[in-house]
Structure formats: structure tokens, C-alpha cells
Amino acid sequence: MTHRIKWATLSIVIYVIFVVCAIAFKLLDPAKIGLSWTVFWYIAAAGLMYYFYFKNMAYQEVIYYARQFHLTRLDLEAMVPNRKKTAEVPDPDHPSIFTPLISVPLSVTNRLTDILEKRAKDEHVAPFK
Fold first, then answer.
1. Which residue segment(s) compose the domain that 75 sits in?
2. CA–CA separation, 3 vs 53, rounded Å?
3. The total number of structural domains that make up the chain
4. Do the domain assignments include residue 129?
5. Whole-prediction pTM value?
6. CB 125 within 8 A of CB 67
7. What pLDDT, in 10s, does the model give residues 56-104?
8. Does residue 39 lie in a domain region?
9. Dihedral, CA atoms, 95, 98, 103, 106, nearest 10 degrees?
10. Is residue 22 assigned to a domain?
11. Nearest by Cα to 54 from 125, 105, 126
């Protein structure tokens, strides 16, 4: 199972659980909160699940390339020197499911991905799947 399928499946499962709970416990009943708020929360939850998928994919891609090149956290930090003090870089030795959501911003993973993809193409490393 590829990373994309794994994270897409996980995002869909979480969204389905949200929908089932919302219907079973009548949390988003249009009669109680109105149709517009009901629609808003279903769309907001879908958006959050897409963000969860996208951010985890960006994180996993950086981890994949970092492991292919045997890079450490310090090596990755050196690749993005102009980041905020609170912005962490992925740690290839200790990846976590919650790290990309909390402490690693997309600006860091996007810059690292650009650098690492270019290097992977130059060194003929298999692309991330």
C-alpha cells in the first residue's frame, strides 16, 4: 500500500466516523442549528481531512527522501536556514503521526521537498509514491 493510499484511506475513514457520529448523536441536526451551519460543518470537516492528508503526504515525502540520502535532522535544518524559530523540520530518525500536524509547517516541508526532489532527480532516486 502506497503512502498516498494509506493517508487518503485514513482521512476518509476519519471523515466517515465524523459523519456517522454527527448523524447518530444528532450533533449537526439542521432542525437544531440550521441548514447553513450543518452544511458548513460537513464541508469544514472535509476540508480539515484534506489538509490532514496533504500535510502528512508532504511530511512523508520529506522523510522518504531524507532516508534515501541518509540525512539527519541537522542536515535538513541546514537546508532551510531562514525559517521561524518555532518551525521545526522533520526528523527522519523519529517520524511521528502527530508531528506534521503540530510542529512542522508546510512552508518548511515544501522548501525541503523542492530541494530533495531536485537532488533525487539528479541522483536517479526512485520517486516518492
1. 3-122
2. 10
3. 1
4. no
5. 0.86
6. no
7. 999 999 999 999 999 999 999 999 999 988 889 999 999 887 777 788 9
8. yes
9. 80
10. yes
11. 105
